[in-house]
Amino acid sequence: MKDILAHPRLHWLELWVFPPPLAAPAHGDLPYDESENQKWGWAPAISFAGAVCLLVVAWGFNGARRDDPYYELVFWLGILTFYALIVWRLISPLASRRERVALVLLAGIGLYMVKVMHSPLYFTFYDELLHYRTAANLLETGFHFREHPLLPVSPLYPGLENIAIALVNLSGLNIYYAGIITILVARAVFVLVLFLFFEKTSESPRLAGMATVIYAANPHFIFFDAQFSYESLALVFVVMVFLGIQYRMSHHKDKPLGSSLLIIFGICATLVTHHVTSYFLLICLTLWAVVAYFFPYEGQSRTMLFGTAVLALVAILSWMMYVAIITIDYLVPVLSGAVFDLFKVLVRDETGRQLFSAQGENALRLWERVIVYSTALSILLGLMLGAIVIWREYRNRPTYLFLCIIGLLYPVTQLLRFTEKGPEIASRIGPFMFFGIAFVLAVSAAKLYPAANVSWARWRHVALTAVIVLMFWGNFLVSFPRWALMPGPYRAAADTRSVEVQGLAATEWIRDYLGPEHRLAADRINGLLQVAYGRQYQVTGSWNNINVPGVFLDVPFTEVEYRTLCEGQAEYLIVDYRFNSHLPLLGFYYEDAESEWPYTEPLETAVLEKFRGRDEFSLIYDGGDLVIYQVDLSNCDR
């Protein structure tokens, strides 16, 4: 295509469609050498060593499944060495641009493989099971916006499911493998585009490589944003918009059509893929435009930024108002509750939540807390130094200031962790804040260890590598509860640790012998499996406004509990007998309202046996630990 456009008379069309090539490295890098830039350097050797490290991670995962001794040590040895090798070389001033691109791709794909090895046969994370149901509905019916019993907003943002189902139809793969491939491609594109954005902003492949690998240290990179969920894909589109804007700002006189199309595609793709990510994109575009207005930079177009922000505002509000209006009811109570709790803590109307207050298996050990606190301190110091450097040397560059503001907002958002309802929100916004954090920390690293020959260069190299690996370790420790970071034997109400073959077998039996779309009541995980893999409807207190936990936990079974089943039109009940030998790791078996009364002992057998032998219930499935009752609803009208 570009060869055809090379004709002199068509050169104007080439400039209009294709953006100018990336500039040669500028500040912070060694003198640019085109021949050196084409070398792979240490990338092949690090790729081989990284593969060995991932093999060690797999060994640790298998040991965790068998509950072998020292499996945790093996796991940490593998994953930290893998990350450290990549960080070590990306910090080096001697690596070529091609080598850096290869290494950031290795980091992105290699860390994604950690998630795949965690769940290699089927989806086990809570959110991806919810999205499995959305994809299954789309595959079965061919229609969008089908009702979802547990996550009603998911069908209204079908970007991820559209891609996965297209792959299913083209290849014949099942939804699981199509989802794995979809997120794999998304991860590769994400780290590559993120590298290009940072490179175009800084004009430095070295700084771009460091910023990209630091972004991989955010708490959600390995698991949450690698699962089959809409945020995992939506982040790709956000970075595409950022890259397109940076090209347009740098080359606004040429007005390349490719960059404009990338911006429009990214905005539209984001708003149909994930609600929160689209709102973050709108906030970023608005902030970027404001910064460009007050800190103009010669050669950059402020009008384009304001126009892009207006386009995003109109598109996102139109989708929300005309397609996904229920998103308001879904998000506003959570956000307002967290902000209200934070306000009460700040005015000392309430005492703040104590950090690391979890007990038992949910609690971090002392050495883990030391690592987490060291991580937080390292990030704060790096942000302070990076902010000073950016203000002194680059405050005439709007993109630098925009990313710096995003990074500096991160410590403010973490105040939500001191409230009862805020920790989940503070955790969820981490991947968005890390766009700025990664860039500011990379600026700090480049300042502490410039590319030119400096004294103590080797020790600075070692120290920076150690600090970045420490940040990766500490953020990984708080990404999920400690028991969820690795697979292992069955535990009750433990999300990934509760998804196992007996629950899957019961799901398959109901789907094959009873058919889909039946209403049933069950605990958190078995109900989720029935919704996702069995395409059933789970009756819950959250959406049906009935006391489902009381049906299972109140003893003896009375007319009140029967009326509750009638109100929810629950045709079947699932009882898990493992609850009489396992405490719930999340604090509840059925719904989170139970967590107000912490369990000190597992459920008594009498609680689980109360349905057996009653006229209202017929035992239709007995899998040992799991039993299924059919509920006689014929007396509901009495």
Topology:
Blueprint: H1 2-5, H2 11-17, H3 34-37, H4 43-66, H5 71-91, H6 97-118, H7 126-141, H8 159-171, H9 175-202, H10 205-215, H11 230-250, H12 257-271, H13 275-294, H14 302-322, H15 326-346, H16 366-393, H17 398-413, H18 423-428, H19 430-448, H20 457-477, H21 501-513, E1 519-521, H22 524-532, E2 537-538, H23 541-544, H24 548-553, H25 559-568, E3 572-576, H26 605-609, E4 617-622, E5 626-631
Parallel strand pairs: 1-2, 1-3
Antiparallel strand pairs: 3-5, 4-5
Short overview:
With 638 residues, the chain is mainly alpha-helical. It has helices at residues 2-5, 11-17, 34-37, 43-66, 71-91, 97-118, 126-141, 159-171, 175-202, 205-215, 230-250, 257-271, 275-294, 302-322, 326-346, 366-393, 398-413, 423-428, 430-448, 457-477, 501-513, 524-532, 541-544, 548-553, 559-568, 605-609; strands spanning 519-521, 537-538, 572-576, 617-622, 626-631.
3D structure, described in words:
This protein is mainly alpha-helical and 638 residues long. It has helices spanning 2-5, 11-17, 34-37, 43-66, 71-91, 97-118, 126-141, 159-171, 175-202, 205-215, 230-250, 257-271, 275-294, 302-322, 326-346, 366-393, 398-413, 423-428, 430-448, 457-477, 501-513, 524-532, 541-544, 548-553, 559-568, 605-609, and strands at 519-521, 537-538, 572-576, 617-622, 626-631. The protein has 2 domains: 42-484, no CATH class; 495-631, Rossmann fold, CATH 3.40.50. The protein has 26 helices and 5 strands. Strands 2-1-3-5-4 form a 5-stranded mixed beta sheet, covered by helices on one side.
What structural category arises from helix and sheet content? mainly alpha
Mean pLDDT: 86
| Arrangement of strands in the largest sheet | 2-1-3-5-4
Helicity range of the residues? Answer: 55-70%
Largest sheet: number of strands, sense, barrel closure: 5 strands, mixed
Shape: globular
Radius of gyration: 26 Å
Uncertain stretches? 1-28, 30-34
Number of helices: 26
* Whole-number total of structural domains: 2
Distance between the termini: 75 Å
How large a portion of the residues is in β-strands, by DSSP E? under 5%
The total count of strands amounts to 5
